[in-house]
Amino acid sequence: MKQLPGRIRPRWQQQLASSFVLGLGLVLMVALLPIFLPLMLIAGLLASLALIPVLRQLRREIEQLDQVQQKSNERIPLDVTPWLQKVWARWKAAANKRS
C-alpha cells in the first residue's frame, strides 16, 4: 500500500507511543490483578463444585455400561457421534421432509 500524503510521525515518536501504551497496560494489569485474581479463583471453585454431581453421574453410567458389557459376550454398539453432528443431521432431515 502506498503512504497517503500528509505528515508522517518520526519512528522514535511511534516507538515512544507504543511503549507508553504497553507500560500503561502493564500498570493497569498489575493494579487490577489483586482485584480479579480472587474473583477468578472463586469462580473456578464454584465451577468445580458444580461439576461434582455431573462427574458422579458420568462415573455411575460408565460403571453400569461396563457391568452390562461384561455380562454379555459381545460388545454393545455405542453411538459416539458428536452431538453437533447429530443435531445437524436431524435439522437436515427435518428440512428435507418439509420440502
Number of strands: 0
Residues in helix, %: over 70%
Summarize the main sheet: none
Q: What portion of residues belong to β-strands?
A: under 5%
Number of helices: 2
- Structural class call reads mainly alpha
Rg, Å, rounded: 29 Å
Summary of the model, kept short:
This protein has 99 residues and is mostly helical. Helices cover 78% and strands 0% of the residues.
Structure notes:
The chain has 99 residues and is mainly alpha-helical. It has a domain at 17-72. It is built from two helices and no strands. The protein has helices at 11-71, 83-98. The longest helix is centred in the middle third of the chain and has 61 residues, at 11-71. The radius of gyration is 29 Å and the shape is elongated. The mean pLDDT is 87.
Pick out its properties.
single chain; about 100 residues; mainly alpha; 2 helices; elongated
Helix and strand topology:
Elements: H1 11-71, H2 83-98
